[in-house]
Amino acid sequence: MARLTKERAQDRIAELASRGHDLVTFWRECTEVLEGAVAHYDKPCWYTLDPASLLITSHHHDGLPQFPPELLNHEYYGDDVNKISDVVRSKAGISTLHEATGSDPSSSPAWHMNMAMGGDQEMIAALRRGGAVWGAVGLYRAPGEPMFDNEDKAFLKAIGPDLATGARTGLLVGEARDPQWPDSPGLVVLAEDGEVESTTPGVERWLSDLPDGDLEAGRLPSAVHAVAGRALRTAQSHDDPGEVALARVLSRSGTWIVLHGTSLVPSGSRRAAVIVEPAHPARITPLLMSAYGLTEREQEVTRLVLRGDSTAQIAEGLVVSPHTVQQHLKKIFEKTGVRSRRELVGKVFFAHYEPRFRDNENRTLDGDPLRGEPFPSEPDGRR
């Protein structure tokens, strides 16, 4: 019975991931699914992460509208195990606090913070698809409850890719419906026969830049129809919503544009949502340049430090010597005013990601779409 319940829950998560929900709705629906699949204390803690830096951009927990500041400080400055950043970049992508502490959770400062809020056991899992991490989920159990077991871990790992898809889609849909960046994505919803049902403001500029389309004549670019058709062809049923179709197209202006197609599976006729966005570099890159004046190579090193790479891993990835990496780090520390990697990660998070994290808390309360990028550094104060 327990295995059947988990199988049904996994099918339901896959269905929810394809519905094109905004992020908060997606988390709330998934919270209900997890309640019947894995026993846990209170509610799950949902997080989104910036795939470019693996820094947290939002948190959702029904009943906890504001994430405790001391937990954020501990995540980025504290000395502990089973941190979100460590778990999501690990090969397994999932860990329990009891395992990480060798069955002595009292040695972890986080355990004492969790206990103060009623949670003893802690299990954290990455939301990862195709090598990119889009978020994490944390589950807790009260003192005296059975331990999280391998079956629980296997279930969270199984639903991780669909949770990642739902999180990514929710962020993209939110940005498309609330455009505030010059390169915010656009959204087109197509009926099964290819007719346009709805669009978001600003999508016309992306569609006009794609080859072989003529919006004035009512003809969409062939790439839009292609990804929509592929998404609909692979969707078999509510329990099998199919793949997220992707296409990368060279625009008329010479830039690359990425299209994401997914089937929408509410009752009634089938539809496809196509999100169109520029293939921009990670937004952390221009932020690091404008805020600290880092060179291109220093930005590359900083991005890898934020992701938790060691000196040896950075040297291998950039095809330079470890000594060269250390020299770059010395310059980065001087420009950013820090003395260590941990201070660098903490400074970048609290200067540029924590404002977005708190802004997303306010957006949740106001019913506005959540954002997944670091806070803009432009002087005009765009949000």
Helix and strand arrangement:
Layout: H1 2-17, H2 23-37, E1 45-49, E2 56-60, H3 69-77, H4 84-89, E3 94-96, H5 97-100, H6 109-116, E4 121-129, E5 132-141, H7 150-177, E6 186-191, E7 196-199, H8 203-209, H9 222-234, E8 245-250, E9 256-264, E10 271-278, H10 284-292, H11 296-306, H12 311-318, H13 322-336, H14 341-366
Antiparallel strand pairs: 1-2, 1-5, 3-4, 4-5, 6-7, 6-10, 8-9, 9-10
Key terms:
383 residues; Beta-Lactamase; Arc Repressor Mutant, subunit A; five-stranded antiparallel beta sheet; 46% helix
Text of the CATH class of the largest domain? Alpha Beta
Helix-strand makeup class: alpha+beta
Total number of β-strand segments? Answer: 10
CATH architecture of the largest domain: 2-Layer Sandwich
Give the low-pLDDT segments. 379-383
Oligomer status: single chain
Query: Which geometry do the CA atoms define?
Result: globular
CATH superfamily (homologous) name of the largest domain: GAF domain
Rg, Å, rounded: 22 Å
Helical percentage: 40-55%
Order of helices and strands, N to C? HHEEHHEHHEEHEEHHEEEHHHHH
Strand order of the largest sheet: 2-1-5-4-3
Number of helices: 14
Can you walk me through this structure?
The chain is an alpha+beta fold and 383 residues long. It folds into three domains: 2-176, GAF domain (Beta-Lactamase, 2-Layer Sandwich), CATH 3.30.450.40; 184-278, Beta-Lactamase; 284-366, Orthogonal Bundle (Arc Repressor Mutant, subunit A), CATH 1.10.10. It is built from 14 helices and ten strands. β9 (256-264) and β10 (271-278) form a beta hairpin. α2 (23-37) packs antiparallel against α7 (150-177), α10 (284-292) crosses α11 and α12 (311-318) crosses α13 (322-336). The longest helix is centred in the middle third of the chain and has 28 residues, at 150-177. It starts with a helix and ends in a 17-residue tail after the last helix. Mean pLDDT is 90; it is low at 379-383.
